[in-house]
Amino acid sequence: MLDLPRAGKPPPLAQGWGAWESDFMRPVLILTRARVIAVAVVLAVVAVTLYFSQNLWQSANAIRIAPHQALYQLTLTRLHQANNIADVRGQMSYRIEDACDGWNVAQKFDLQFVYTEASAALITSDYNTYESKDGRHYQFSTRRMHDGQLTDEILGKAERRDPLGNGVIDYQKPKVAQAVLPADVLFPTQHTLALLRAAAEGKTWFHQPLFDGSDLSLATDVSAFIGHANKPYVVKIEEIVPIQKLDADDGDDSAAAETPPTIKPMTAAELNANPLIADTRAWRLRMAFYPRADAIPAEDKDKSDAAADIDPEDDPANAITPDYEMTMVLHSNGVVSSMTLDYPDFSLDARLLSIAEVARNSC
Q1: Residue 317 falls inside a structural domain
Q2: Mapping DSSP to helix (H, G, I), strand (E, B) and coil, where does residue 219 land?
């Protein structure tokens, strides 16, 4: 609280009531040049203090997670080495809801792989999670399908009694198993908020392990270089187009990906004007995701495999080669407006097609 000067203080009582009445009724010119300068300095200090206080308040409150749903178009941008992949395309949908005491997340990939020497194949991945805001509870479910046939299913939960201590991961699928969750590992929304805070504080480097339950790993080491985006989102309007079905000549049409009918693609002008994009700060990030040697549940370890017991910090391969890398524009409300995924064999561009707010639950 600022202690501002107060006006209207009466003269000492020793002067008598008459003196007070006289002074009160008769205007007196007391604004000398020195006092004008002093007042100007005080006002300037107050103005600067209020300005920076407001900016600090806005910055602190700008870092948040906005419930939203988004649709991205995925297209092949590069093949890194010789292989039989001719094309990769599809879509990714993402939805995050505020569940009062936690976050519900639903993410789905539909990827169409076209091969030079085989029929096209549709790879689908459904990923659903619940994460409590106190960092104690996390539930996860992942289902992967190949041309409509289930190939992988992971189901489980992770819990911590102490948000800063170790936790326990309980898997129900693909089989019942239990593992220790390291204390330094964050859940996905925790991880995003920590990354946003680092960006808002002006840091250019962020490193924190992550557990998301999308596979049987206990953790993934994530390293990020934080830069700045000139504008939150810029793209040519003609580049925003919905995914179309493959032609019959391109492969098996039954495996083609279609635009989900629940979300209508938007123009770039509409995206730029959307409050989820326009009313935010944004940073450009380059992220690398590294496997950890302890990222295998104890029951699934091959005791004869000495490599499984190598500390990731001592393994030069793990220290140099990430599983995959990602370049993204991340907004202060958790929205991702553009993204490039770099895998060992190919790279995908994820272009934002549509975004909309998700109504908050009444808590």
Answers
A1: yes
A2: coil
